Every structure is written in C-alpha cells, then in structure tokens.
Amino acid sequence: MNKLVVASMRQGAGKTSVIIGMAKALGKKIGYMKPFGERLLYRKKRLWDYDAALITSLFKLEENPEDMSIGFHHAKLLYMLDEQATREKLGEVLTSIGENKDLVFIEGGRDLSYGVSVHLDPLSVAAALDADWLVVVSGDGDLVLDDATFLKKRLGLPAGRFRGVIINNVPNIDDFRDTHLPKLAQLGIPILGVIPYEKRLTYRTVGYLADRLFAKVLGAEANLNRVARSLFIGSMSCDVAVRNPLFHEPGNLVLTTGDRSDMLLAALDARAAAVLLTNNILPAPHLISRAEELGIPLLLVTADTYDVARQIDSIETLTTRDDAEKIALIEAVFRKHVDLAALDFA
Amino acid sequence: MSDIPDDDIRHLFEPRSIAVIGASRERGKIGSAVLGNIVSGGYAGRILPVNPAGGDIEGLRVYPRVADIEGEVDLAILTIPARFVFDAVCQCADRGVKYGIIITSGFSEIGNREEENRIIAYAKGRGMRIVGPNVFGIYSSAVNLNATFVAGNIAPGHLAMITQSGALGLTMIGQAEVENIGMSAIVSVGNKADIDEADLLQYLAHHDDTRVILIYIEGVRNGEKLVRVLKQTARLKPVVIIKSGRSSRGAMAAASHTGSLAGADDVFDAIIRQCGALRAESTSEAFAWSKFLADSPLPAGENAVIITNGGGAGVMATDAFEKFGIGMFDDVQVLKDVFTPATPSFGSTRNPIDITGQATAQDYTRAFDAALQCPEIHSVLGVYCESALFSSENLKEAIEDNYRRFKSAGKPIIFSLFGGEKTSAYEASARRRGIPVSDDVYPAAASLGAMYAYHRYLHAPPGAIADAAIDVEAIERIVEDVKREGRYFLLSHEARTIMTLAGIAIPESLVAQNLNGAVRGAEKIGYPVVMKIVSRDIIHKSDAGGIALDLDNAGEVMDAYGAILRNCRANVPQAILEGVEISEMVRPGTEMIVGARIDPAFGPILMVGLGGIYVEVMKDVSFRSLPLERKEILGMIKSIRSYPLLLGVRGEETKDIDSLVDTMIKLGAIIRKCRGISDIEINPLVVYEQGSGTRAVDVRIILSKG
C-alpha cells in the first residue's frame, strides 16, 4: 500500500482537487484520510470533513467519512490526546482505511504548520505514517517562487520521502513557463506539474451557497443544483440594472433586499440563476409564486446586502459530489498538466 | 403635550369671547368667511374682529391689535398669512388669551417645523394652548359657534367630529348634511402641534349633546394619552374611528420579531379595539354606524334574529352576521313558539325567520311584534325583497312604525331593502329621516356588528390592572452596565438574569469559556443539553451556525463546541466569541412567542403569537397597549388563530394558559417599569400541560438608544 500526504503551503491551494485529479487519472483503488479535519460539517450531532465526504462519495469508498479524521479542533485534541496517543490513533485509522487499497491519500491541514501543536501537521503525519509527501503551491508566479524557495532553503528539501511540488491555479501559464519555471528548476525541486487557472472550477451551485449562508429557501428548491457563475448586487435602481449587460448574463446570482419587488421581478424576467434576498424581508406571495413557476430558486437571509456580499466573497469554492462536469474537468486538466509517470505509483 | 383640565378645555368649545385675527370685509377671504359664519351662526358671545386697518365689519368694531381689546378673550382664531402668525400668537399669549386656533397653513406640513415649534413654545410658555396650524376651525353647537370657513350652515345634532384632514373634514361635513346628520361639534386638528384628539375627547366625553364621536385620524403622536382617554370616553359614549394608512409598512429588518411584526396599522387596529373604539373602513360606514349608535338603543343581549321574505337574502344576512360577529339566536323551540303565529306553514321559524315572498306589510309587523315581545330576542335585522305582494309603497308602514316601536321599547332594529327604483328612492328618503335602512345586508350587519362590539365593551367592566412584582433596581443595574459598555443588545446570560429577576422560568444554564468548562457544565446540568454561542456581535445565532441541540454526552459536547466556534468564526469573522452557553434541553411543548416593546406611537405594547422559526411567515400574533387587565391578556391569547393549540388538539392535553398569562404580565411589568429597555422577546416560550408551567427558551432584550 502506497501512502501519500498531500500538503500545501497556503490555505485553498487546491489539495482536494489535486487528490481527485490524481486518483481519477491513476485509476487505482484508493483510500483517503484527513487526520486534522478542516472543512467541518456538523449535522445531527455528527461531525465530519467536507472533503472526506466528497472523496467517499466520488470514489464510492466504503468507509465512513466520520472515521477519516482524528479531530477537528485544537481544544478537543489537546483535551483528549497526547503525541503518543495521536501517533497510535493515526496508525489505527490508516490500518482501517488502507485495507485492500493500492494508494491512500492523506490530506494535510490548511498549511504546513497547521496542527503542529496537536501533532497533526502534514510533516508530523508523514513521519508518523512513514508516508511519501508532496506539496501543492498556487497563485501568481512570485508567490509560487517564494513558497518553493522557502521549502528548499528553510526546510532543506529534498529530505525524507518528499516527492515534489504541484503548482496549481497559475493565472498566466505561458508567462509562468517563461519567467518562473527556469528559476524553479534551478532550485532543484521536482516539479510534478503546472496547472493553469480554470475559471469554470470557481463556479458554485446555488444549493452550496444556500447551505453556507444558512439561507431559507422560499421557492424552486428542486433547482438548487443550478450553477451561480457570477454575483450581481442589485442595489441600484431597476432601470440602471436592466440597462447593464451583466444583469442579463446567464448564471447570475442576484443579490437584493427583500423589499425591492422591482429588482426581484427584473431578476426573474432576466432569468437569473437564483435570487438571494437580504434583511429577512419576505417578498409578496405572488413574487414567490412567480419564482416557483420559473424554477428560479429564491433564497432569504437575515444579514444585509453588504454583509452577505462580503460573506459570499469569502466562501471558498468547493467541488460538490453531483458536479460531474467540474470533476471531469479536474481529471482532464490533471492528465494534461501533471507528470503522472513521475509519481511512480504504478 | 400635557393634559388639559376638563374645566379649561370648555373655553375652547364654549368661549365667552372670540377674537378673529385677520377678520376681513373682503369676500372670498378666509377671515371674512370665518367671521361671517360666527355672526350668521348665532353665536351670542363677544365677537372681536382684529385687523390693523380698524373700522368695523358686519357692524362689529374692529380692533387694530389684540392688545387693544378690553376684557378677557377665551379664543383667538388666526386667519393671517404664516409669516405674521408668530407675532400674533405672541400678542395673544401676552394678552392672556386661553386658546388659539391657527387656520393658517404653511408650517410643519410643508417642512416648516421650526416656526411651528417656536409658536407652540411661546404660547405654552404663557399658558395659551393651540389648535392646528392648518385647520378649518371649530364648530360647537353648545354656543351656536361656527368658527369655520365651511360654506353654508351646519345643522346642530348629536354627532361630534374630530378630523386631522381639513379637506376630508369639509367633505364629511357635506356628507353629513346630505345624510341629514346633525353635529354637536366639529374640530379639525391639522398638524396637532399642541392640542390633539385626546385633549378634545376630554370635553366631548362629558358633553351631553354629543352622543357619538367620529374621529378621522392619520397619525398618532401621543398614543399612550390617546389610549387612556379613549378608554375613558368609550365607557361613556361610542367612538368611531377612521384611520387612513392601513397598508402594512412591510416586514422591516428589525432586531426583534416583535418589532418587525408590529406594523404601524396592526398595532393601531388592535389598540383601538382594546379601547372600545369602533374602526370603520370608510366615511359612509362611519356615518352609518354613528347614526345607528346615536339614534338606536343598545341591545340587552347577544341574541339577534333576521326576519326576511326572501330565503336567499336571509342566507346572505346570516353570512354577514357571521362576518361581523353577531350572535344568531338559535333556540329552535323558542323561535318556533314566538314566530309560528306570524309565519306561513311553508315558511321557516328557524333563524333566519322566513315569512316568505307572500308576506305583506302587516305580516312583517306581526313578525316584528313577535320579536319585540320576546325577551330572549335582543335585536332584529329586517330584510325586505321587493315582491308583487308587498309593494314598496307600503314600506313606510312596515319599516318606520316598527322602528319607532322598537326604539321606544329599547330594542334595536335595522333594515335592509332590496328592490328597484321605488325601493331605492324610499331607502334614500328613509335614511335622511334617520331610519336605519340600507340597500344591502352587509352595511346593516356591519352597523349592528359595531353596536354589538360596543355593547360587549360596555359589558366588560374595567378590572384591576395585572401587574407583577419584579426587582426593578437589579434589572436597571444590568441595563446600565450594558449601556456603559456601549451595547444595546443584552447577551444571553444577561437576558436570562433579567428573566430570573422577573420570575420567568428559564432552562438551567451556564456559560463556559473553553471546552473543559463546556464539558463540566454539561455534566453539571445533566444531559441532554443545548449549546449556543455567546457573542455580543452575533444576534441571530442560528444563522451563524451557533446553536447545537440535544447533546447527549461529553463527546457530542466536544464536537458541538468545535463546530459552533468554527461556524461562527467563518460566518461572522469580526465577532468576538465570549464562550458558549450550556443549557438544559427543554422537553417539547407548544411554542409561543411573547414580546413587549416601546412602540414609537403607543408606548409600551405587548404581543403574543405562535412562536418558533416561522413566526414571521405565519404572522399569527396579537397586540395590545399596556397596562392590561388579566382578562384582556387572556383575550389577546384567544384572538390568535393558533389558540386551539393551547386548548389541546388531536388528543393533547390543555396547555398551561394561566402560566402563559403570568409570563406576559411579567414581561409587561419589565417593559413598563424598567427604564432603558425598548424590546423584550421570548421565542420560543414553551408552554406545557396545565399545571406544568412554561419555559423561556430564547430571550432577546434590546435597549433604547435614547
């Protein structure tokens, strides 16, 4: 059984996407664990990691997502486990998860240092489980270069079972190849792949946003799987909004306060992907019916428009299990841009 | 706006002398019209025209200045341009004039509030009170005073009218004339800069010639005073109110459900009914009610019958009775005994009594007589459908003679007449002669319903105000501490302390600052427990993912602790998280919402309704102005649609309604007595089976920013 810790230098670098892409491309029988749960889901008194649930569902794993993490927050881990007990627990989980698997992915926390005080940072986990590890770095060229240089100079790589870096979400790949890649090569760090930024991977479904915003769904609940490609803040007059070409773009999530009947009606007429009403103001019943007729989800939240817009901006984009298009895209991108042979998990 | 002593307000309605400032001999000017009406109306007191030009008008000496008038002046009517009003009011106030009516417009109604305030401040500082500005004057039958610019004479009578709208007031005077309704007093209050409806009611309530008071109102400035005076007045005579602005202001983004549910008109409507006043939808309805109430005796009881010659009309009338809350007398045996002699064999003695299409005027009289003689029947609606056997030419006999006999016997009767041109003509003429007739069953039932509403108010004598002993000082100390920190929302544990000080049952709980504390706290309270975030920055805890329910063991408490902190940090990143509250998990019961707040117009008000998460969707709530009697609070609870849930449905036991009432009384006591609190809300208040009390699960308290 091969074991690979996938770590990142910064939060949101794309570890889970890399694992999905790699697993799909390799076509192996895989296992998954995320020792220090990060994107927690808390439902009906059960606690599990979003990524664990996603991988379980995508790859039809038999294990329970709740059993793929040791803990989710420092307080409980400090209260429950010391270093030795943590190592033992990691071993137990790996044994249980890894049975009959070709390759077990072990996803790290948000960055290299996260979890070090509770012995669950990626390097401690890799050491405890005697696993290979790679690092995902992402962002613009300068940031990637800084991260890679830090890995090399401050952590003294290559060391142990380090397999290399995957550079993710590169905005301008041609420029990156010309300007930054030669410098990275000089560092002597194995570059497993350079994956370009793909806007389609940033789209979110209406249902996902509704869930994250604790929104009440007022209508067209059946269409929550619609994709919200962009956010249109309807705080201007209706005349101005309808003259704006962006208002008529497909896939708009229109954000407006619940007493703006005019804006709501205009958004329905423009066939928005969904309308998110703020300030906990219920619209008139006939408008709710109209949204239902058109199949346009109508969501209601308590916060004001400004706060909700900020909240949406800060919600990270996660892949969902029913987003087949996005998963296929991840696999295709991975096959095209990552050197699978170099991973040598044949 | 302080109350005016009863004997003092008399000088406004019954002045011994009137100065008309701006009196003019030039026809078409308001000063000329007002003076002309005072003179032609037969006012017997001193009339004192004031105009810098001097001379005389209509044979009266004109004084150049107010200061030139000898003797006392009770009332000054100001008809001069706005820019001269302040100086004129100063002269009047310095001269000791008791009341001023500023007919002139151009003040706060167009944004000139500063000048209006300056005038009122000067006048009140010298003991002079002001009606208006922006009014059409005053009419008072007590002294034959018509100090208005209404065209034509106003007939004296028994209806007093107070109107905030000058234009609508003038129209209503015209309508009253058409309907042949005599007036005892008319006052327009305009901008209500000083004197308002409540001040005027203090006179009209005790004015013998006034039998009914009709008020047109657009906005309330001092609701607490209005409520107090309306309650007193309605005990003495009916008050009919028309208020414009029924449309809801919408569910505003308010910090409390009580605030967002308290649409201005909903609160007004509930409170007006609480005061015994009758709210009419239109001016024609208001006049119909007023006439009926002024000219007909009140019923002795709830039993009403419908006597008709048409089955369909009878059914419609039955529907109308239900709509307007009129009790259909349904003792079949009594009805049979009473009406069999007056009903053909193929008619019906069940209410509605169908005396059939063959009925003549004499048959109606026989049936009406039977109802009049029966002590168990307390009111009658006579419904007439024109037929070949009973020509409309005979209506006078069937309607007017019976109306007079009923009136003299002290039993109300009202009529609906369906028919063609002749019937319509008779109906219009009878109405002008003061007979309570209408051309449909709904207006008639509405009038009778209004009479019954008033009857019920009178037969519910005022009782003791429900109050509760609470530790006001301790509560105010908490409020002051919170205000010192610059906060206006109480944290959960602070709100819970206030509940404890008021004696409102809450689930056992404690606040933990860390995971160890949370686990220890849960074990101390006993499983299952509820965990909620404690943060001054998070008001809607569930929206931030800050609540976990039904935690059964230490493991679940640990998971919930992590999840709540993580959710709240993610959803409200700027929030300072002060810990978590661990509470006993209350067992299920009927979830109600109770709230109390300081309403901007009416002062302290109380709310009760169906609670839970859908409170703003269901909007099944009831409001009243505080203070309240216990039976009024019970009435509030009974008025909500969900009341049957408290009585027990589908085999459930009756809930502890007494305990719910007690909790509402305590909430009312807090809002009335503790300074600084603007809103208190408990949602849900779980009400258990009778004898098992209530639990205030979530309490929200907001402080006023004043």
Helix content of chain A: 40-55%
End-to-end Cα distance of chain B: 19 Å
Oligomeric status: heterodimer
CATH architectural designation of the largest domain in chain A: 3-Layer(aba) Sandwich
Question: Class by helix and strand content of chain B?
Answer: alpha/beta
Biggest β-sheet: strands ordered side by side in the sheet of chain A:
2-5-1-6-7-8
Q: Strand count, sense and closure of the main sheet of chain A? A: 6 strands, parallel
Largest interface: A-B, 25 and 32 residues
| Number of alpha- plus pi-helical segments of chain A | 15
Radius of gyration of chain B (CA) equals 31 Å
**What is the highest CATH level, the class of the largest domain in chain B?**
Alpha Beta
Q: Percent range for helical residues of chain B?
A: 25-40%
- How would you characterize the largest beta sheet of chain B? 7 strands, mixed
Structural class of chain A: alpha/beta
Beta-strand portion of chain B reads 15-25%
Task: Find the count of extended strands of chain A (DSSP E, 2+ residues).
Answer: 15
